[in-house]
Write a structure and sequence with these properties.
The complex is a heterodimer.
Chain A (H helix, E strand, L loop, with lengths): L2 H15 L3 E5 L15 H5 L4 E3 L4 H13 L3 E5 L10 H8 L2 H4 L9 E6 L14 H5 L5 E3 L4 H13 L4 E6 L22 E4 L4 E5 L4 H13 L4 E5 L2 E3 L3 H11 L2 E8 L4 H13 L8 E5 L10 H4 L3 H13 L1
Helix pairs in contact in A: 1-7, 3-4, 8-12, 9-10
Chain B lengths: L12 H9 L30 H5 L3 H26 L13 H10 L5 E3 L5 H6 L7 H6 L8 H4 L10 H18 L8 E6 L6 H13 L3 E7 L2 E2 L2 E2 H4 L7 H5 L3 E5 L3 H19 L2 E6 L18 H8 L3 H12 L4 H23 L6 H6 L7 H24 L1
Parallel strand pairs in B: 1-2, 2-3, 3-7, 6-7
Antiparallel strand pairs in B: 4-5
Classes of the chains: A alpha/beta, B alpha/beta.
């Protein structure tokens, strides 16, 4: 099953099991979303449960907050990463704070799905990785799957969570195939997962870069380096315990993400792990990420996006200490 | 270089002509816009086919209570302002002058309706049965809310302008679903906002969504003429009520200082919304007699003459004239109302000075509804840090 189909199946299961859940977004009904993630759901559950909304992102999230206050569980789709900003105010000043400012009286379990990341040769505003902006906002939980199996379970777990959850979907992996066990409940979505064991260095990645990190580890193995790969899965909270255990063993840490390194999650992970693992580190933590520029034109995005070689280069630097 | 166009405080002739070319037939002047007004400044009641029946249903006691509500919240507003001046509150947001708009609309709502206020709806809070001292918790800095909205269906104050209008629409969409599913009686939300907030994009999006889903929401705009220091004419060249037509739902302009007209118009609008016919926009023409907040100084941006002109339209004065003319109220009644206000003021004062905040542990506890490792880590660190001082003090003693 592809990741897109897995999210679709997860949403179908949610709509079937939870009568208060409903999908909201632009073009998610008859069209099934621009990536067809919601294909067939309107036909199956009706326009009442799968709502094509007016074209207004603040409106989508703001009305979802109101629906949640009334006891519903809205799952919003933002069509592309670069179009979430009209809703940024509602997400950061309202959604993230409602539970806190109500002194715990109110719950707003809104889920916001956002396809993110580049590598698809698209025009501007369609390839961005804005996750750090949301991770910086207390009150939100942020998760991102890298496999169809995780996608299937994590979207359902996001809906079940009483806190607001932003669900970042790595859009260039929508067509990635993998087995999905729909019987055995998935791992806790707010924990990281060691997806390849190793002893010499730890590479932390999430979403679209997990397959890249795995390929880099495979290439490093050919050079005699045993590299452990961690799929972060949750960007807020971050499962520092899993990273700490790994780095205490390997002594080297590489963090890779598509988002720009400056002010990014890689810096946060590097700082925390430096504190926790100072005496185990053989080299400084190294970040691999986007440059400090607006996401570049499609024709040069290959030079911008971290790839296998960029991760191998970072590993070489780490091993050189 | 082309002439730079700056917003002015006047409706210009040139703009009027421009408007006409685009099908705006009326003079874009607020005074020319039809307005529902039932009780004159002289305290004389006129009849209106649509709205008077709502007033016919009122008992003498209810009429009197409209006055006492307005007088009580005005007294409360004075006390809160005094508390701020005395250093008990960080800030206060006065509402004096807007009692007619707030008591009239609030009294039209039913318990099952849900109210989304801005941060100035102290009068509406009173009509919902909220202990008004709770309003001060936010302004004293001991809470970011102050009350549990579920108890009175009166939502927390929202300080980010217009954000709550979308919440009101979404909540109303949920109400309509509950009614359709047989889970709840018909009810509506009221989304309060002001003339300043009307320029925010969220007001536009909320009206688009409300119209699209025919949500049972009443948009209640108190046009109090001033967004802090900026006059209404900078926000809009036409009365806001005309915008309703653009979204495809009814709009009613009402004399916001006529509590009876506001009550009747809001009753009509809520019935319209509850019956599944969709949203209504009410623009209540009123005036903020005081400052925007206690941090502001109206003498820097507006004429005393304008304030004086509006004092003549005081919502309390005209209802007093009407009640006296009917023989429903005498000096004794007004003295009693005044005493009730003083009692509330004393209660609020006593409550405020003893309000204290929970320590930062409660702030940690409410960030998320479920366990969160970063919260656990930071709160544990913070507790240990605080405790380290306690230990040190212990040693010193």
């Amino acid at each position: 099953m592809t990741m897109a189909k897995a999210i679709n199946a997860g949403l179908r299961a949610t709509l079937a099991n939870n009568p208060k859940s409903l999908l909201m977004g632009e073009d998610i009904g008859d069209l099934g979303g621009v990536y067809r993630v919601t294909e067939g759901l309107k036909k199956e559950f009706g326009a009442h449960r799968v709502m094509d909304t007016p074209l207004a992102e603040s409106g989508i999230v703001g009305t979802a907050i109101g629906l949640a206050l009334r006891g519903y569980q809205p799952i919003c789709e933002i069509q592309f990463d670069g179009f979430v900003f009209p809703a940024f105010n509602q997400i950061t000043t309202q959604l993230a704070k409602m539970h806190s400012r109500s002194e715990g009286n109110l719950h707003v379990p809104v889920v916001i799905r956002i396809p993110y990341g580049g590598g698809i040769g698209s025009i501007e505003h369609h390839s961005e990785s804005p996750e750090a902006l949301f991770a910086h906002t207390a009150g939100l939980r942020i998760i991102t799957p890298s496999t169809p199996a995780d996608a299937y379970w994590m979207i359902q777990q996001a809906v079940e969570c009483p806190d607001p959850v932003i669900f970042f979907e790595p859009k260039r992996r929508y067509w990635l195939k993998g087995d999905v066990d729909t019987e055995t409940a998935g791992q806790d979505p707010f924990t990281a997962s060691v997806v390849r064991a190793g002893t010499d260095a730890t590479v932390v990645a999430y979403g679209p870069l997990v397959p890249v990190a795995l390929s880099a580890a495979e290439a490093a193995a050919a050079d005699g380096h045993s590299v452990e790969v961690i799929d972060l899965r949750s960007l807020s909270p971050i499962d520092f315990d899993t990273i700490e255990a790994s780095v205490k063993k390997t002594g080297r840490l590489i963090v890779a993400h598509e988002a720009p390194t400056f002010g990014g999650l890689g810096g946060e992970i590097a700082a925390r792990i430096s504190e926790r693992c100072f005496y185990s580190l053989e080299a400084p933590a190294i970040r691999v990420g986007g440059f400090h520029m607006p996401y570049p034109i499609a024709k040069v995005e290959e030079s911008y996006l971290p790839d296998i070689d960029r991760i191998l280069e970072a590993l070489e630097r780490a091993f050189a200490y | 270089m082309a002439e730079v166009h700056l917003p002015t405080t006047e409706f210009e002739e040139a703009d009027a002509a421009h408007g006409n070319q685009h099908g705006v037939t009326d003079e874009p002047n607020a005074d020319a816009e039809p307005m529902v007004s039932l009780l004159s400044v002289e305290g004389e009641l006129t009849r209106d086919e649509t709205y008077s029946p709502y007033l016919d249903a009122l008992s003498a006691e209810e009429l009197l209570s409209f006055y006492s509500d307005m007088a009580t919240v005005r007294r409360f507003d004075q006390e809160a302002t005094a508390l701020q001046r005395q250093g008990e509150l960080a800030m206060w947001v006065p509402m004096t002058g807007q009692e007619g708009a707030q008591i009239g609309s609030g009294r039209a709502s039913k318990p099952a309706d849900y109210i989304f206020p801005t941060y100035r709806e102290h009068g509406v809070a009173l009509t919902r049965g909220l202990d008004l001292s709770l309003l001060l918790r936010q302004f004293r800095g001991v809470s970011n809310a102050g009350w549990d909205p579920r108890e009175t269906n009166f939502h927390m104050y929202t300080l980010v302008l217009a954000a709550q209008t979308l919440h009101a629409v979404g909540y109303a969409m949920g109400m309509a679903r509950d009614v359709a599913a047989g889970l709840a009686e018909a009810a509506a939300t009221i989304a309060y906002f002001g003339d300043g907030a009307s320029s925010e994009g969220d007001v536009h999006e909320s009206m688009v969504f409300a119209a699209s889903y025919q949500a049972p929401v009443v948009f209640f705009c108190q046009n109090n003429r001033w967004a802090i220091s900026v006059p209404f004419e900078v926000q809009s060249k036409v009365p806001l009520v005309r915008r309703a037509g653009g979204y495809g739902f009814p709009g009613i302009r009402v004399d916001g200082n006529d509590v009876l007209a506001v009550y009747a118009v809001t009753q009509w609008a809520l019935e319209h919304a509850r019956s599944g016919k969709g949203p209504v926009l009410i623009e209540a023409d009123t005036y903020r007699l005081g400052a925007h907040t206690t941090a502001d100084d109206p003498t820097k941006y507006r004429d005393r003459a304008q304030e004086d002109a509006w004092r003549l339209k005081d919502p309390l004065l005209r209802l007093e004239k009407y009640l006296r003319s009917l023989g429903l109220a005498d000096d004794e009644f007004f003295a009693k109302v005044s005493a009730v206000g003083d009692e509330l003021a004393a209660h609020v004062r006593a409550a405020v000075v003893t309000m204290s905040a929970k320590d930062i542990g409660a702030s940690f506890a409410n960030v998320y509804a479920t366990a969160h490792p970063l919260i656990a880590e930071e709160s544990a660190w913070q507790r240990a840090y605080e405790a380290s001082f306690a230990d040190a003090e212990g040693v010193a003693e």
